Amino acid sequence: MDLKKEKKQKERQTTLRMLTLISQFGINMLVPIFLCFFAGMYLDRFLGTNYFIILFFFVGALAGFRNVYIFAKRSTQKRGGAENEKTD
Question: Which of 1, 34, 52, 88 could form a cystine bridge with 43, CB 3.0-4.6 A?
Fold first, then answer.
């Protein structure tokens, strides 16, 4: 009976860890996009132009992709390091 409970507990922890990673990917992507979008919108209204919103949106998207790349790289390195320590 204890083995089943331990297995379910480990499955829940794994599921929660994966949901956390997915939400962090989303946050790392969306926050820079929205911040840059609204900064571009503010500049366009302030300066009376129409192109900063588009420029800043793409800058935010690039920053978001960079954040996701760095986050994915770090999370895979942590896992790889933990697995290597167990085998040594």
Answer: 52
Reading the block at residue 9, the tokens are 């507990």
Nearest residue to 66 via CA among 28, 18, 40: 28
19 membership: H or E segment, kind and range: helix 2-47
Rounded to a whole number of angstroms, the distance between the first and last alpha carbons of the chain is 32
pLDDT one-digit tens code per residue, 30-50? 999 999 999 999 999 999 999
pTM assigned to the model? 0.72
User: Measuring CA to CA, which residue among 20, 21, 22, 31 is closest to residue 61?
Assistant: 31
